[in-house]
Amino acid sequence: MITIHHLGVSQSDRIVWLMEELDLPYELRWYDRGADFLAPEEFRALHPVGTAPIITDGDLVMAESTAIVEYISRRYGQGRLSAEVDDPHYPHYLFWMQFNNSLQSVLFIKVAFQSAGAEPGADNPMMATTQRREDGLYRALEERLAESEYLGGPEFSCADIMSMFNLTSLEMLGARPIDDSLPHTRAYVERVSARPAYRKAMDIAGPAARRPD
Ligand SMILES: N[C@@H](CCC(=O)N[C@@H](CS)C(=O)NCC(=O)O)C(=O)O
Question: How many domains does the chain have?
């Protein structure tokens, strides 16, 4: 059985969500963040990259959620939430599977600059590039959701599971709020948040959930 090593308030909640969508059994092992808000040592000892999520499946120890999501969907979910190569929506699926890391990298650069004292919008080529990339990503998101019900195509897929954390939980890192300025994205977040498997997963492991007794 797959064990999800879940770090509290983290994007490992998407693996719980995936398992609930696919109705697969799993064990959840909970790790609380330290006072520095980072993963504790026992979590980091699981895998050299030390970031959440991490899963174990027999002898396999796997990190990086894009890889984990695709692995579980294909190996245990008969590819139900993935796209096949000959699917006309496959290129969209691939693109939106990467949105998570693209957006998070620009947010991390912004946070790093701001914690070094740079003002938002500072006249600095790296900041300007970062802002341009961030704006482009939100523009792509809004345009995509104006034409398609879900990111990877007309059906809900792993691309949605990969992207929701960025839209619901990253304001703490300075991510753009999903408000009336992004109407298609806002409607999408409401639609996806209503899924029973999403609600159940957030109750178990979402940002407001706490370690079970
Ligand atoms: N690209 C990675 C990012 C993982 C990541 O940054 N995880 C954060 C939690 S949201 C983390 O582990 N933070 C704690 C730490 O770095 O100590 C993935 O999708 O798995």
Answer: 2
